[in-house]
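cron nightly-structures :: item 1 of 1
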Amino acid sequence: MTASTAPSEPLPVLKWRWIAGTAVAVAVVTAGLLWLFLAWSGEPNAPVRIDAVKTAFGVGAGAGGVFALWLATRRQRTLELQLAETTRVAGVTERDLEERRVTELYTKAVEQLGSDKAPVRLGGLYALERLGQDNPKQRQTIVNVLCAYLRMPFKDLAAGLKGRAANDLADDHDQPELLVRLTAQDLLKTHLSHDGPGYWPGMSIDLQRAVLVDFRLSGCTVAAADFSRARFVGAVHIRGTTFTRRVGFYGTTFKELANFDRSVFPEGAFFSWARFGGDAVFTRTRSGGRFEFTNTDFDGDVDFEGGEHEQLELPDRPHNTGGGAGH
C-alpha cells in the first residue's frame, strides 16, 4: 500500500473513566487551592474569603476550560481522520471500479478480434483504440495486441493493392480479412505519427513474420521495432521516421519499392539476409552504430545518396547498388 493510499493512524479510544478522572482531579485541585488561599490569607473577614474563593474557582475553571478545549480539538481531529479515511476508501473503490471497467472493455474487445465475422473484428479494433486513447497506461498493451493480430497467419498477395482492380483480387486473398488487417496497420500509423493529434509516445512494435500490405509508417517515432522475417507486399513507405532503438529487418522480404528516405536510426539497424525485390531508397537516412546489410539481396536499384552513417556495412557483392553511401 502506498503512502497516498495508506490509512491514517487512528487516535486511541478516549474512555469515559479517563474523562471522569480528569474532572475529579480538577475538582480536587480547585478544593486544594481554596484551602491554601484561605489558610494563607490569615484574615477571617468575608471580603478576603470571597477573594480566595474567586481565585480558587477561577483557577479551577481555567483548568476545566483547557481540558474542554483539548476535548474539542481531539474531537475535531477525529472527525478529520474519519473524513480522510472515508475519502481514501472512496478513492480506492473508484480506482478499483475503473480498473475493472477497463479490464472488461479490453477483454470484450479482444474477444471480438476472435470472431469469424470481419465487421465484429473491426469493431474490436476500434474499441481497443478508444480504450487506449482514454487510458494511456494501456497503450503499449493495445499496440501489442494490434501487432499480434498482424502476426497471425495470412495468405499474402502476389502484389500490393495500388493500381489493381477489385476483380483482380477476388481469387488470391480473403478480402474481409484484408480490410481488417489494413485497418490495424492504419491504427498503428495513426498513433505512431509524432505530428498527429492521436500520437502515443514511447511505443514499441513487434511485427516479426507478419504479412504487411502496402505498409505505411512515414512521419512516425517508434521506440523499438522488429520486422524480422516479415513480408512486405506492395510498396513500403517508412519516410522521415525515427527509431529510437536498434531496428531489426533480419531476413525480411520487400516485394516492391522500399522507401526509407530521411529516416533516422540512432542505434543502427540490421537488414542481414533481407531481400529487396524492388528499388531500395535510403537517401538522406542517418544512423548511429551499425547499419548492416550482410548477405542482403538487392534485385532493384539501391540508393544511399546523402546518407550519414557511423558504420555502414554493405554486402560484398551488392546487386545494382547506386547512389552514394555517405559517411
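cron nightly-structures :: done
Residues 140 and 304 are 33 Å apart (CA to CA).
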